[in-house]
Amino acid sequence: MKLRADQTGDRGLPMPLWLQGALETAQAAIISALLVVVPIVAVWATGGFHSTAFDALARLAGQAWLLIHGVPLELAHLGSGAAGVSGSGMLTLIPLGLTLIPFLLAWRAGRRLARASYTDQLWQALLGSWVVYSAFGAATGFVCRTPDVTISIWHAMVIPLIPFALGMVIGARREAGSWSRLIGVDAVDWISRTSQHSRWAGSYLGSAAKAGVLALVSALALACVLLAVDVFIHWNLVIAVYEALDAGAVGGAALTIAQLGYLPNLAVFALAWISGSGFALGIGSHVGPLGTATGPLPAIPVFAAIPSGPLDYGFVALVVPVLAGVLAGWWFLREGENHFDEWLSIKVHARWFTATASTLLLGVLIGLVSGLLAAGLAWLARGSAGLGRLTDIGPDPLWMGLWLAAEVGIGVVIGYAAGPWLERQQYVEAELVR
């Protein structure tokens, strides 16, 4: 980009990269803010808010912008009881679907900045962009504080940078095509200077990590399918809640957008459900495949799709993560990177022992990767609504990680052991077709 181009054809001075990064970031911040403001203004225009003051509306939009970036909001409210003792609660339940808005805008900005920068200059554009976004978050937090909503300026300054910086780095990597072009370090050349044993160990661990990601993604995809089927089965109850709310066309659309914003959270909740660990919808509640025990829930349509009561065949859902592990174990076999098994076979000549030990270790490693990633997803998807019992919503990261790691590990052992038979069956079928 250039600062100016006059009619004589002189293209002017090159725009400094830090300034270009600042302009790209300002553009992304304004667009994301406008996308948050539009539905709020629509609800306000139809009389959906008690307060019609413009400053109250602007503060609400700013608070919503901070929330989709993950900034916790402290809500002041009156506690239960005759005395009406005042109290406060933290709103930390992030709508991960809406968090994709600043992430995708940052991804676009990162690609544009990488296109305009040399390898050793990209840091200038990134530094300028991150400073501006941090300042935008801090200003929003400062302006949007109210007696009812307390916002930490430090949180507003730092936390929005996490999804934004991640999106910019991924976008820049996508444009550069490789990490070596992005940061100037040739990883292939560095690996080539290591010993053969180190490369074998790296290939083994790298393939195990990929298999763990594959297992988690497969389980999450199957959980999303079950979530869609569950909503379809209980669609009449969902519609009944919409009709009971009678929010009108604009209010219903805003409610639907809010629920779509929490759709990734619901997908993680479904993953916790099929893993057996379950999830909470309030203090003391539990929703799992072996039964559901919840207290009174707010009138949110999607909550009507929660399976209730004892489930006679709910335990069948526990097979889903095992199937994902079977797929990961089979994939690892086809990858052909089980160098630990090769090394162990050289050291110990009892094949029954080496095959068992290497397969069990593989199940532990892949299960551990899947469990850690699942725990991370649970930590991101869970949170507090800040009011009443709803201060504990979502799966427990530790239990979800342990359950999924165990189930995926069992599936990996089965899939890797059955892999040669599956490969032989495919070979026989191919020969018959010929």
Biggest sheet layout: 3 strands, antiparallel
Report the β-strand fraction as a percent range.
5-15%
Q: Helix count?
A: 16
N- to C-terminal distance:
59 Å
Radius of gyration: 26 Å
- Helical content stands at 55-70%
Short description:
This protein has 434 residues and is mainly alpha-helical. The chain has helices at residues 17-45, 54-68, 96-116, 122-143, 153-158, 161-176, 179-183, 187-192, 196-233, 235-245, 248-261, 263-275, 319-335, 339-347, 351-381, 397-433; strands at residues 73-78, 86-91, 149-150, 280-281, 286-288, 291-293, 393-394.
Which terms summarize this structure?
single chain; 434 residues; mainly alpha; disordered N terminus; disordered C terminus
Commentary on this structure:
The protein is mainly alpha-helical. The chain has two domains: 17-187, no CATH class; 195-433, no CATH class. The protein has helices at residues 17-45, 54-68, 96-116, 122-143, 153-158, 161-176, 179-183, 187-192, 196-233, 235-245, 248-261, 263-275, 319-335, 339-347, 351-381, 397-433, and strands at 73-78, 86-91, 149-150, 280-281, 286-288, 291-293, 393-394. The strands form three sheets. A three-stranded antiparallel beta sheet has the order 2-1-3. Strands 4-7 form a two-stranded antiparallel sheet. A hairpin with a 2-residue loop joins strand 5 (286-288) and strand 6. Helix 1 (17-45) packs across helix 2, helix 3 (96-116) packs across helix 6 (161-176) and helix 15 (351-381) packs across helix 16. The radius of gyration is 26 Å and the shape is flat. It starts with 16 loop residues before the first helix and ends with a helix.
